[in-house]
Amino acid sequence: MSLDGSGGILRRPACTALLVDRDEEARGRWRSLLELEDDIRIVGETDNGAAAIRLVQAHAPQLALIHLTLPDMSGLAVLRQMKERHPALKAIVLSETADLGRLFEAMKTGAHGFMLSDMHPAWGHEYLRSIVWEDASMSKALVDHFLNAFMGAYIRELAAQRPPLHEECFMRESPAGRKGE
């Protein structure tokens, strides 16, 4: 938002959004988050990919929230077709699991973001705002999740390569563990 020439506040242009999730209750949660913003207007909702593609053609939304698992086709296939028709579309992929492979596939397909279905509503709201108004690409919560998963695996791998510290100390101090004696 900014000031106009007369000192009044100009509103930013409304962002139009489409919700695509097989679960009606989940769509309701996403709708509630989007409706917190005066500047976001929902132009369509659906539970399947074919209808989502038709809605994108009819309404040309600027934002789409697309679940990875839909009854008639994959969310990635829907995303691919949407981006072919509307390359400027900002798409956020929704999933129940933080699968790193699916995240990378979604990003390669053109997703601007990835949200977990059980993300805390306050984080979800801030993340949606950052995608729409600031061109962010991944939520802090999701980055933390993947970093913890990666670092946890890395630390476990390192631990598997070394004996436990008490064994290492024993080997260093015992005559059989000393070299050159």
Any descriptors?
181 residues; alpha/beta; Rossmann fold; 2 domains; two-stranded antiparallel sheet; 7 helices; 49% helix; 18% strand; transcription
Question: What is the share of helical residues?
Answer: 40-55%
Reported by name, the CATH topology of the largest domain is: Rossmann fold
Per DSSP E runs of 2 or more residues, the count of β-strands stands at 7
Class by alpha and beta content: alpha/beta
Low-confidence residue ranges: none
Supply the number of helical segments. Answer: 7
Describe the structure.
- The chain folds into 2 domains: 2-138, Response regulator (Rossmann fold); 139-181.
- Helix content is 49%, strand content 18%.
- It has 7 helices and 7 strands.
- Strand 3 (15-20), helix 1 (24-35) and strand 4 (40-46) form a beta-alpha-beta unit.
- Helix 2 (49-59) runs parallel beside helix 3 (75-85).
- The longest helix is centred in the last third of the chain and has 22 residues, at 140-161.
- One of its GO terms (molecular function) is DNA binding.
- This is Response regulator transcription factor.
Helices and strands in order, then pairings?
Elements: E1 2-3, E2 9-10, E3 15-20, H1 24-35, E4 40-46, H2 49-59, E5 63-67, H3 75-85, E6 90-95, H4 100-109, E7 113-116, H5 121-134, H6 140-161, H7 165-173
Parallel strand pairs: 3-4, 3-5, 5-6, 6-7
Antiparallel strand pairs: 1-2
Helix pairs in contact: 2-3
In brief:
The protein is an alpha/beta fold and 181 residues long. It has helices at 24-35, 49-59, 75-85, 100-109, 121-134, 140-161, 165-173; strands at residues 2-3, 9-10, 15-20, 40-46, 63-67, 90-95, 113-116.
